[in-house]
Amino acid sequence: MKLGIIGKPQCGKTTIFNAASQQQEAVGDFSQSLHRAIIKVPDRRVEKIAEISKPDKISFAEIEFLDAPGFTGKGRDAGESEINPELRLMDALILVIDYFSDQADPEHDIRNLIDEMILSDQVLVENNIEKKTRKIKLSGDKTGAHELELLSLCRAHLEQEKPLIELAFTEEDEKLLRGYMFLTRKPFLIVLNISEDKLSGAARIQKEFSHFIMPGKQELMVICGKIQMELVGLEDSEKQLFLKELGISGLAVDRFIQKSYELLGLLSFLTTGPPEARAWTIKKGTTALKAAGVIHSDIERGFIRAEVICYEDFIELKTPAAIKAAGKMRLEGKDYIVQDGDVILFRFNV
Fold it and tell me: What is the DSSP string of 56-109?
């Protein structure tokens, strides 16, 4: 999973990046700096199954964070976008909003960031409509006519200053548009970056800005980035004590992961054995066949069956003999919909 972090200069963007990625990048007026980090997704379930199966290796799911250069709004005045092109490669975006400074205007900044993404997509749509129209006229080949219709629909929606994530497309149309990697088709998480003195009012602030929440499309978090960044260098015991003293529910990275999984409709299934215990990230609704392909294409190609045990049963019963005796291991076919926490052994033959 790839998450891009964007915001205006001085909004605390890199502070949030440090808190989420457990890094120590310099913060301040470094709006043109780009930072990148890959973190392991904490998952106690992987550790627990490893305690039982004693594998040689433990592997966690991973998240890549990209802290993109801040934008000033000057590009929009010139009819251009300042959005870094690498953000199009992200699965979801994190919009960091200043709610700590004396000049903070979070409602305006949220709208401004969304407008910036809309402008960026408009430029992309216009360029491609022009190219495809010219190609159809010159060649007479109308195989791209439907794609051109979709782009025109996107343009009309963007011209109304609305993000493309609001539009519903068929699965086939989604495939046609996927290559454009529109920014406003990506779900995003708004992070209101508050000061320490606003911590007691975090719940009220969350409610005040709840109109931006669209389940599965837009989510909202209220955190104090400065405090969360300070937690990065502390030992676990010190972190927990600090969180308790301040009345903070948890670490930013854990909340980012939870919200991001919700936004993207993701879940994790588990595999374990002598070589490795591992968590694998897939979309909700993924079949056993496609889940096998996430591990290796050969497993998908030679799929025979999936031996499935729910995590709780695996932890309680521990041994294959006890699991079999209790009838807790299920044989599932290729159309089985994998559930969060399933411990799966794939049988295949190639």
Answer: SEEE--EEEEEEPPP--SHHHHTT-----GGGGG-SEEEEEEEESSTT--HHHH
